[in-house]
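Re-run requested by the PI after the first attempt was lost when the workstation crashed. Everything re-entered from the original request form. Ligand of interest: alpha-D-galactopyranose.
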Amino acid sequence: MSTSEKVLAGFKQHFTTTPRLYFSPGRINLIGEHIDYNDGFVMPAAIDKGIWFAVAANNTDIANFVSVDLEDSFSIKVNEIAKKDGWKNYVLGVLHVLDENKISFGGFDCVFGGNLPVGAGLSSSAAVEGGLLFALNTIFSFGMNRIEMAKLAQKAEHSYPGVNCGIMDQFASLNGQKDHVILLDCTSLEYKHFPLQLDEYDIVLINTKVHHSLASGEYNKRRKQCEEGLALLKTKLTDATSFRSISSKQVREQKNLLDPKTYDRCLYVTEEIERTQLAGKYLEENNLIEFGKLMFQTHEGLSKLYEVSCDELDFLVDEAKKHASIIGARVMGGGFGGCTINLIKKEKTNATVASITSAYTEKFDVVPEVYIMNTSDGTYEITG
Ligand code: GLA
């Protein structure tokens, strides 16, 4: 049974209403990590793994949720939305921000489930938030566009789940386009879809199976350190408005102003903003070799300066460097576990992955999961 069939079967089992079916994708990110909340640029794409939602209005004042993956369910009055625990907060966060924005909705039945590995850095939480919001937007005719939905879904993640994330994940999940990467300016939210021409290369994710936990507070801590660093830098660089207007050279010149950790964070951010601009140019020139080198540099920065890697991720990237068939590799997403993203020469993918898998298994006694990625359109209703 496919995941969407499982979701529909679950719906039939629990409810008598007639649902509409939606797909909400996860995302990958080629480059531009931890700078969506620092006025940087990112290059995500929606992927063909995600969460399916079956949703129907039920003409009551009760919202009923069933997670087929977790075999768990709960109900809540739509005018009594409150924080609960675990997965429930991802859907309740959406209802909470709708409330806060005085967007009214009635009762509904909702069953969802997916094929996105949770805690792997593929944005299962954004797929849940964006997918639910998209479904409710169509069912209750809120009239929101995809950018408004991305902003609200981001706020949902800030609310009950408590992760002060940037806009990248929700934006990519809602605005992706098959066979394209999104070049997103996180300050203006201007974006363009750029054709992904990776002809000879596969995008391969290798999952350490170390579950990252952004909610653990480290993510929010990084964000705070950046804010504090920026405020200090602005006292000296009086023309600066954001990290966008500060170069890595200027950060180096102000080293004495910042404590060592804050300095490292600010240096990473400004270097990554510079790297993504260069990466955009290489992508447009179809110069994937140079693009890949920047991915390795990003990993180095995320590992040494931003400190969001872990031994397992570093090991996978070190292994990747041993293979000429891999032109770029790095930790992807929030970090602290999850996946590396690798650009691998197609005809060598199987052999390369087999070699890295066996080295990883030998070292950590865990068999990593491997996904060859396909892109997808942003959240959509499945009709017919
Ligand atoms: C998580 C967050 C995003 C982004 C990435 C790191 O996925 O949700 O907003 O900050 O980490 O690039």
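Saved to the shared folder this time. The chain has a mean pLDDT of 96.
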